[in-house]
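It is worth pausing here to work through a concrete case rather than discussing structure prediction in the abstract. The textbook approach is simple: state the sequence, then state the predicted structure, then interpret. We follow exactly that order.
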Amino acid sequence: MSNFFVNIADKFEAMSNVVKQQTTGSGAGGSSSASSTGVNSRCNDCRGQFATLFPKRQRCAICRYYFCRTCVANVPVSGRVQLGSALPLRDAVSNTVVPACSRCQVFSNPNFTYEQLMRLRVRDLFWFLQRTGTQNDELRGLKEKNQLADLVMDRFGNVEYRRARADERRHQHERLAQMASNMEQLAGGAQRQKIPMLNHRKLLNYRKLLNHRKLLNHRKLLNYRKLLNHRKLLNHRKLLNYRKLLNYRKLLNYRKLLNYRKRWN
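Step two, the predicted structure:
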């Protein structure tokens, strides 16, 4: 019964705002009055357009924004807290249900999980962080959903998650400190004992020398093969020239013989 009277009051409020906008015009004053009373022409979740008269909308009892009826669900008040704090809802009455949007269903739960945050949209995470007092400078470099979800969990997550994150950071800091100390010990040991460092350098120089020798041998082999091929080519040409010369001499001798026979005949 109370929800019925609340809906009737919302409808009369919307009608009065429409009349004010029509009488005062669509200037800056009309838009500021509409935004101050919380009356919007679109759903804050699906961005659907509301009807001008008797719109089918419903206000979230936690964030006080208007949504269409399909984007709001009734949730029990018991165990719900205000957004960004551990205080219970101001108008909470035990064993009752109130309408809540999808994002408030998650953020009003003091034990929300990382998986529930990842199911929300990026703009919902931005909205919650801005509503809870996070500065825009802190949000400027955050563009991925997992970064925003990590920030929300670090600031407003449950105690177990915060402890786990603190332990993880402490272990990570200890590992980094241990690695830094090991590097300092290795550097100090190398300065005190220069023999292993020198042996390492000798090994590197020896490997470079071997690679250089392999390269030289490979080049020598290539040059030797080129020389052999060149010599074979020269010998082949000489052989061809020698054969041509022999054939030419044979031809000359044959012609002389023919001329000699003609003379005798």
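Step three, interpretation. The two ends are 152 Å apart (CA to CA). Strands lie at 57-59, 66-68, 72-76, 97-101.
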